[in-house]
Amino acid sequence: MGPFMSPFNNLLCMLLGISFTVWFTLLLVFIIVPAIFGLSFGIRSLYMKMLLKVFKWATVRMERGAKEKNHLLYKPYSLNGIIAKEPTSLEEELKEIRRNGSSQDLDEFEMSDTFYFCRRGIESIVDDEVTKRFTAEELDSWNLLTRSNYNFNHISTRLTVLWGLGVVIRYGFLLPLRLTLAITGVSLLVVFTTMIGFLPNGRVKNFLSEKVHLMCYRICVRALTAIITYHHSENKPKNGGICVANHTSPIDIIILASDGCYAMVGQIHGGLMGLIQKSMVKACPHIWFERSEVKDRHLVAKRLSDHVKDKSKLPILIFPEGTCINNTSVMMFKKGSFEIGSTVYPVAIKYDPRFGDAFWNSSKFGMVNYLLRMMSSWAIVCSVWYLPPMTGFLSRLMAFLLVKETGFVFFFRDGGLKRGKVKDTFKEEQQKLYSKILVGTQEDRSRS
């Protein structure tokens, strides 16, 4: 057996060596080198166009088959909500409730008024407009991902075969390729930023740090097969400013940092994330806080203020919503970002959910699970809008600019509702409104 196995082992080793060489050469020529120089061969754009044609054909086949078999494909309330609501005022609804009662005048409390508040409470539980923004949106068409349409059933053999072929392509080819690129990008970031950290502070160090960060982030972008369209590049954030963006996913950072360098702000972590943070801060002045320092607003504000006063330092990247929102809305920005007194550069990010859902539901998926879902999706397609810089009080209005540019829905609610209880101030708003109606009616009667 020995003499016969030796040639076989040699042949196997030679084939593995050739495969590895070809694999690494393709990565180097078509992905790593273009990422260094910021070039693109247009392969991802062709890939996206091909996917759109496949999705269109699959959707037509699915709808035709569903019609023949009388299957329900889409939830009837996916767009308009579960409960049909008409915009009416509190005063009008109370009058409607009292219409059949003993008194229709709103000059004193009636027990029947409680029915209004009970109904509104039940409606909020069944079809809450705010907490819906913390769950993944459902598509109106199928993109061959079972997690994108929970009402999908077996419609035809062709669609099932196509879906199976997609699974093989995504997990057998795309996922290993993307994992290789992600490991390459992160490894190069750690090694090169650590090396740059030994250089003395100056223009050379800043130049090399910027080039290394851009190269590594662009490799990571390719690890997601991300196709990004940037608009209004003349408004890109400049040194000494603050970049403020809506927040859908942890990859928002990679999406923005692949087009320009930023100073990151965050809590110090352990493990692999901690290693990356330590290496990055050696080459670039990022702002990391200890766990005990995060809740100290004055300390955080001072660190940020000291950073923006130095016009040679990179712009700070901040997500003032404080949590991830599901790519359909913008929620109330926390005011701390606007109290520093620096120029604010608003940035709007909107993902195309047809190719993969970029929203991170942190209460449902851990970081590793989420990243695996991203890398096993078809692609990440998004648009980024750089909006005109703002200063002073006007910067508080930038959420409305983001809504106008992206078509998002704006909710004047705190993103902290994702995990916290409803604030007492929200309850007091309804109480004040109700009491104002009663008191106002009594005052009108006394004057007459």
From TrEMBL:
Q: Where in the cell is it found?
A: Membrane
**Annotated ranges, domain Phospholipid/glycerol acyltransferase:** 241-352
CDD domains on file = LPLAT_LPCAT1-like (cd07991)
Cell division is among the record's keywords = no
Q: In which pathway does it act?
A: Lipid metabolism; Phospholipid metabolism
SUPFAM superfamilies, per database record = Glycerol-3-phosphate (1)-acyltransferase
**What's one GO MF term for it?**
glycerol-3-phosphate O-acyltransferase activity
Instruction: Spell out the InterPro entries in the cross-references.
Output: LPCAT1-like, Plipid/glycerol_acylTrfase
Instruction: Work out whether the entry's keyword set contains Oxidoreductase.
Output: no
Q: Which GO terms describe its cellular component?
A: endoplasmic reticulum; membrane
Keywords for the protein's UniProt record, in alphabetical order = Acyltransferase, Lipid biosynthesis, Lipid metabolism, Membrane, Phospholipid biosynthesis, Phospholipid metabolism, Transferase, Transmembrane, Transmembrane helix
Q: Where would you find the membrane-spanning parts of this chain?
A: 20-43, 155-173, 179-199, 370-387
Note the SMART domains from the entry: PlsC
Tell me where on the tree of life, at the top rank, the source sits. Eukaryota
| One of the GO biological process terms | phospholipid biosynthetic process
Q: Which family does it belong to?
A: Belongs to the 1-acyl-sn-glycerol-3-phosphate acyltransferase family.
User: In its UniProt entry, what is this protein called?
Assistant: Phospholipid/glycerol acyltransferase domain-containing protein
